[in-house]
């Protein structure tokens, strides 16, 4: 038999690899679905690429790649037999099979046991070889199988890692001496005993002194009085007051000069009247989230509808998303996006086409992972109601109510956060910033005419007036969200003043603070503040040819199909941490914005001259530009990126062109360029670059006074303009006319609309990769480009400005860097709350506490 197996595997030996240190083994989840070894069909791991595939998708990978050998992993989970020892470790067969495989939490208790099964499967005949089979398999195959079975799961590295050194137990913890001085610490109202500072306060565990910190491990600032107190008294341990939870606290040892663990922290705090259970704070998956527990309790309960008996719902569109640890911001955003028909059509309606044309590594393809998540949320496959027998059994056992498990967005999160300093971390993030980031990626990856983010895009008309000459300029910019400021216009002002008096009295008398009162702000006041004139900093008046005072007002030049409204609830505290304003907005279900429609230049208004401010380049900058022009072509191309693309099977010259025309921005950007241009007749032709002997306009002809940098504008700039809906030839002409300055090119496009129509005719068949169409808009729309726009411009779905509330995302906590997100979506005439993996009918949707609102345009009828 050994000889037979050896002979059977001989033709496939060149395709079987042993995972190296840099290889990721996807043995916990399918690349196209949420199938896992626990699924009915198990998981197939390719023995060459180490990608995982469910039973429905492994055939596609075999047909596409010809790879025949897969390892099939199956986990059999079953309830323990009656009478089994309750504390027994779950029984395993082949104990090392899934050594680092993440267990489903439902099966991680004492009531279940599981058996792991692994075998090699050879396609297309589905010939199976059980594992382990050391005696009968060739040595290379045995080594490869053992390496796959014992390799960590692909996303194990994504888990919260020990980027800090492991915290050790303090040597003072067991023998700490505490003074019996009668000190009792109140639940709030703390301040430093020496400087009255109210932030970054530390409680000395020996004498109960409350003092401010400085230069501690958490990076907080202060006046250093806690450290000064230690030098005077040698009392070694202190605990940070606003980080005490039932799970522990942040303890610092002055003598050991590091953060430490105190196993007796509960007793040490009780000495000063602090009950850790009373200090309970809301956390998310074990991560401390809220640094202001008392005021936030009611908000958590109201937004999550905690006191209500919410009815769970199942089926298509009612699938939850597992929390990966501070990933609720991603869950809330994706639930809302996939409730919009355009996103459903783009990614779920085109599911088979996307999967069939996915790259060899689908885990790195944005469209594939969006389609995977969309199908998981909308198919109903992962949201099934419990069987009647299960319900009866749970009632008999008095177990918890059945809840769906939800789908895990691990692959999509890893992809969209790659290279992003914030989203790639395991910390809580701002859902608004993620939403703009996702829409940015949708823009960049929509290679055809279909772009679901078009439903959010609209034009804002900005009217700038020179206060001295009274002349005006009208410009338009692209935006995807309106950010409404929160004015000081509370309707319950007297109630707020009374609360402030009571709060100060409680502070002075060291009593617990009164129940917090939220400021109630009318939505109309926020809208009015958005349209109020604002000063323009550093305004340069072309009428005066000098800096002057200027004011700006904004109106809608077009209305989007779906309007995103963000309430600017967050500001910066003294420690530069974003903090939330404690308020409620009376947000309406229906919204009419037609009165905010832009009007353009009015009779009697005089326009500012169309002149640009003078640009003066230092001599050293001009020298750099000249040097860049005369660099040899080979120095302009990242050969490592070229070879990486060539190894994927693309022609070498095409790879060189892709890297060059995307400005050495990396293989991913170059790959997008290849996909968009591979049908062109000169796709594989050699790259031709302007030589240093090419004639060009003189320095005096250039508006910047510098030598032109080549006849062809940078491809990334062309891609940005084409992704906004402008014809390719018109975009190139604009860039050439403005020395490749993107903002000035946009200005040029809207001052030369008569040339666009003829350019569009010659460019109708062109499709370009959508690069970063947001530019500066991904963080603040105020800093976006402001080109002069005519009636022609980016793709917008204009229509009436009447809207109905569709969904809203709410945040609980004191800061965007902490807390928890949930979303409410109106489906089939009823509100549904999506709280991570829990999906229920909403009894009392807290519309007044939302952070981001989504409105759908009402039909004109």
TrEMBL record:
GO molecular function: cysteine-type deubiquitinase activity; zinc ion binding
Domain UBA: from-to ranges: 636-677, 712-752
Pfam hit, one: UBA
Keywords for the protein's UniProt record, in alphabetical order: Autophagy, Hydrolase, Metal-binding, Protease, Repeat, Thiol protease, Ubl conjugation pathway, Zinc, Zinc-finger
Gene3D superfamilies: Cysteine proteinases, DNA helicase RuvA subunit, C-terminal domain, Zinc/RING finger domain, C3HC4 (zinc finger)
Superkingdom, taxonomy of origin: Eukaryota
Catalytic class of the enzyme: hydrolase
Annotated region described as Disordered, given as residue ranges: 694-713, 756-797
InterPro entries xrefs: Papain-like_cys_pep_sf, Peptidase_C19_UCH, Ub_carboxyl-term_hydrolase, UBA, UBA-like_sf, Ubiquitinyl_hydrolase, UBP13_Znf-UBP_var, USP
Binding site for Zn(2+): 192, 195, 212, 225
Reactions mediated catalytically: Thiol-dependent hydrolysis of ester, thioester, amide, peptide and isopeptide bonds formed by the C-terminal Gly of ubiquitin (a 76-residue protein attached to proteins as an intracellular targeting signal)
CDD domains the record matches: Peptidase_C19B, UBA1_UBP13, UBA2_UBP5
Protein name (Swiss-Prot/TrEMBL): Ubiquitin carboxyl-terminal hydrolase
């Amino acid at each position: 038999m050994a000889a037979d197996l050896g002979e059977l595997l001989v033709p496939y030996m060149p395709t079987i690899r042993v995972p190296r240190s840099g290889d990721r083994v996807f043995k916990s989840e399918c690349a196209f679905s949420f199938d896992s070894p626990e699924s009915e069909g198990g998981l197939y791991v390719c023995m060459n690429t180490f990608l995982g595939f469910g039973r429905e998708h492994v055939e596609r990978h075999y047909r596409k790649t010809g790879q025949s050998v897969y390892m099939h992993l199956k986990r059999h989970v079953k309830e323990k037999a009656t009478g089994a020892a309750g504390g027994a470790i779950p029984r395993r067969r082949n104990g090392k099979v899934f050594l680092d495989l993440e267990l489903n939490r439902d099966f991680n208790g004492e009531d279940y046991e599981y058996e792991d099964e692994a075998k090699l499967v050879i396609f297309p005949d589905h010939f199976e070889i059980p594992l382990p089979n050391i005696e009968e398999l060739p040595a290379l195959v045995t080594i490869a199988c053992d390496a796959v079975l014992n390799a960590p799961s692909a996303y194990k590295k994504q888990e919260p890692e020990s980027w800090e050194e492991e915290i050790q137990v303090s040597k003072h913890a067991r023998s700490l001496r505490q003074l019996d001085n009668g000190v009792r610490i109140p639940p709030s109202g703390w301040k430093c005993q020496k400087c009255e500072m109210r932030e970054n306060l530390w409680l000395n565990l020996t004498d109960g002194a409350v003092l401010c910190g400085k230069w501690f491990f958490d990076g907080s600032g202060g006046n250093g009085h806690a450290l000064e107190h230690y030098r005077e008294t040698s009392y070694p341990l202190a605990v940070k007051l606003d980080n005490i939870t039932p799970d522990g606290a942040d303890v610092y040892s002055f003598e050991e000069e590091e953060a430490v663990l105190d196993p007796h922290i509960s007793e040490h705090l009780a000495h000063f009247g602090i009950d850790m259970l009373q200090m309970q704070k809301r956390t998310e998956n074990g991560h401390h989230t809220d640094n202001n527990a008392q005021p936030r309790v009611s908000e958590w309960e109201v937004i999550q509808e905690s006191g209500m008996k919410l009815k769970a719902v199942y089926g298509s569109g009612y699938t939850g998303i597992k929390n990966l640890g501070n990933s609720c911001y991603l869950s809330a955003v994706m639930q809302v996006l996939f409730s919009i028909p355009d996103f459903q059509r783009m990614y779920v309606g085109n599911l088979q086409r996307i999967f069939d044309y996915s790259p060899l590594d689908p885990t790195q393809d944005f469209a594939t992972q969006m389609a995977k998540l969309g199908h998981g949320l909308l198919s109903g496959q992962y949201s099934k109601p419990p069987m009647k027998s299960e319900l009866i059994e749970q009632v008999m056992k008095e177990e918890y109510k059945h809840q769906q498990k939800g789908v895990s967005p691990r692959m999509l999160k890893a992809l969209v956060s790659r290279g992003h300093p914030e989203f790639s971390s395991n910390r809580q993030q701002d859902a608004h910033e993620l939403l703009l980031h996702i829409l940015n990626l949708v823009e960049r990856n929509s290679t055809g005419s279909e772009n679901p983010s078009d439903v959010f895009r609209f034009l804002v008309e900005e009217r700038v007036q020179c206060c001295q000459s009274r002349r005006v300029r009208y410009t338009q910019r692209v935006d995807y969200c309106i950010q409404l400021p929160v004015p000081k216009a509370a309707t319950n002002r007297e109630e707020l003043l009374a609360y402030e008096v009571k709060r100060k009295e409680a502070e002075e008398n060291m009593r617990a603070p009164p129940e917090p009162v939220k400021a109630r702000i009318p939505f109309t006041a926020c809208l009015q503040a958005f349209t109020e004139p604002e000063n323009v900093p550093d305004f340069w008046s072309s009428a005066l040819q000098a800096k002057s005072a200027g004011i700006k007002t904004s109106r809608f030049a077009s209305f989007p199909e779906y309007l995103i409204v963000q309430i600017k609830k967050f500001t910066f505290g003294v420690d530069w941490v974003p903090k939330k304003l404690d308020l409620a907005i009376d947000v309406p279900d229906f919204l009419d914005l037609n009165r905010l429609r832009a009007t353009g230049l009015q009779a009697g208004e005089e326009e500012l001259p169309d002149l640009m401010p003078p640009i003066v380049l230092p001599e050293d900058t001009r020298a750099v530009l000249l040097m860049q022009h005369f660099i040899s072509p080979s120095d302009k191309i990242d050969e490592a990126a070229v070879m990486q693309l060539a190894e994927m099977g693309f022609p070498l010259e095409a790879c060189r062109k892709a890297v060059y025309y995307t400005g050495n921005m990396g293989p991913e950007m170059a790959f997008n360029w290849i996909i968009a241009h591979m049908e062109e007749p000169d796709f594989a032709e050699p790259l031709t670059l302007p030589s240093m002997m090419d004639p060009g306009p003189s320095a005096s002809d250039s508006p910047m006074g510098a030598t032109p940098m080549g006849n062809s504008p940078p491809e990334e700039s062309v891609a940005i303009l084409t992704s906004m809906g402008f014809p390719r030839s018109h975009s190139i002409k604009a860039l050439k006319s403005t020395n490749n300055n993107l903002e000035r090119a946009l200005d040029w496009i809207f001052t030369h609309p008569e040339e666009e129509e003829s350019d569009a005719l010659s460019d109708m068949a062109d499709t370009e990769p959508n690069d970063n169409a947001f530019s500066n808009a991904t963080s603040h729309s105020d800093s976006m480009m402001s080109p002069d726009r005519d009636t022609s411009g980016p793709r917008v779905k204009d229509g009436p400005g009447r809207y109905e509330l569709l969904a809203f995302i709410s945040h609980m906590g004191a800061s965007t860097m902490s807390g928890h997100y949930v979303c409410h979506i109106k489906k089939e005439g009823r509100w549904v709350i999506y709280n991570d993996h829990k999906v229920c009918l909403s009894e009392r949707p807290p519309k007044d506490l939302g952070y981001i609102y989504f409105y759908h345009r009402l039909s004109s009828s």
